[in-house]
Amino acid sequence: MQCPILWIHGxxxxxxxxxxxxxxxxxxxxxxxxxxxxxxxxxxxxxxxxTPQAVSLKxxxxxxxxxxxxxxxxxxxxxxxxVLAFARAHGADGIVTSAGTDPRVEGICQALExxxxxxxxxxxxxxxxxxxxDLGRFSRYWRRAEREVWAAASQEQ
Amino acid sequence: xxxxxxxxxxxxxxxxPGDLPRHFESRQALEAxxxxxxxxxxxxxxxxxxxxxxxxxxLSRIQPARYAKGRNFLDGHVTHLSPYIRHGALSLAEVxxxxxxxxxxxxxxxxxxxxxxxNELGWRDYWQRLWQQLGDGIWRDQEELxxxxxxxxxxxxxxxxxxxxxxxxxxxxxxxxxxxxxxWLHNHARMWMAAYLVHWRRVRWQxxxxxxxxxxxxxxxxxxxxxxxxxxxxxxxxPYFFNRGNLERYSNGTFCRSCxxxxxxCPFDASYEQxxxxxxxxxxxxxxxxxxxxxxxxxxxRGSPAASAAxxxxxxxx
Lengths: 157, 318
Fold this sequence. Notes:
The complex is a heterodimer of chains A (about 160) and B (about 325). With about 160 residues, chain A is α/β, with parallel strands linked by helices. Chain A has 2 domains: about 5-120, HUPs (Rossmann fold, 3-Layer(aba) Sandwich), CATH 3.40.50.620; about 125-155, no CATH class. Helices cover about 40% and strands about 15% of the residues of chain A. In chain A, helix 4 (about 80-90) crosses helix 5 (about 105-115). The mean pLDDT of chain A is about 95. Chain B is mostly helical. Chain B has 2 domains: about 50-135, Serine Threonine Protein Phosphatase 5, Tetratricopeptide repeat (Alpha Horseshoe); about 140-310, DNA Cyclobutane Dipyrimidine Photolyase, subunit A, domain 3. Residues about 285-318 of chain B have low confidence and may be disordered. Chains A and B meet through helix 3, strand 3 and helix 6 of A and strand 1, helix 1, helix 2, helix 4 and helix 5 of B.
């Protein structure tokens, strides 16, 4: 990609965002996701609940204050439509973002890919664990992870 | 601009029609603008400010050894970093490295001082990995409940007195007010509230989880829903509950002193055995071969803050 735009989402509102690190200075956009804020997505509401309620103002305010410290344009509405409109306005040949845990991020990336190439960059993990990790209980995960985390600490010295 | 003005960092590209504003005269102006832009969103701004600068200020104040010692107390030295981590103002890897740096500095205490804090960061990573694996299935019971009650016995909706913070219990009403006003609660308060709602009021955990997600600045379905499930027992070997002695100890008696039910009518004022008999129905198939009393005494059994809460088993007060 020669001139991509960056899509910043709500899991990466800091300088460690790998898209901001890989493409400093490129136009970046964050979209206040109307459906999510209305409580109509599994990120914010029980999919089985017939009467979703909107996310409170303080959560939006917190995001807003994080966003004001980043070089990012702010939009509100449908995320896919807004990101694509932003890309068009900047004549972009692709979209770069960071991987998210929320399945909603992946879904949005798939929709964006219908229009433009999407590059998804992985943030630095807390701990790197190869192969399948048993997540049945925390203790099983931690038996493996603890050793790796502390091994990284001693390498730092 | 006024000293408390909020100005976004400069952009290297031109604004487009429909861009949201990035300059405000004050925090009040931001609040007013957000009310206009998001009319469905209720309430006020939190006194907790977002942003990297705040996150770094908090990060510079972490004290791993004090955290390990006092983190279960409401006034203990906890980090308050969760909202910033949730939204990536700080990454978990950055927090990890800052903790390591602190431990390795002179007087930092080394690994021993930091084990608990690193372990709790591990919980965050664990919940995130599970979310990735479960996807939206994170809203469903991961296992059968171990409360002896049928899932249908739980009410679907948040009771009005809980939603409005007028349960009459000084502790719960205090926590509810804090949740609504600030969007942040100490982990122990979250656990007490969840146990109260699910076990004493017998409400589906999903109703509570959804309520928390509307308000918590750090709310995501990973830590939130799975912790509710942990309390409810759909993601643990047994339900989490507490008693008055436990709450009174870790809140330094703050709520009980002013509670109208302090002398009579406190639903938490009983031994663990009495409360267990009151709240749960027998589950022979689960109890067979499962020494519950031994489990509760072992603080490492779950490695979570809840374990130590259930640990203290004070004698009945009256």
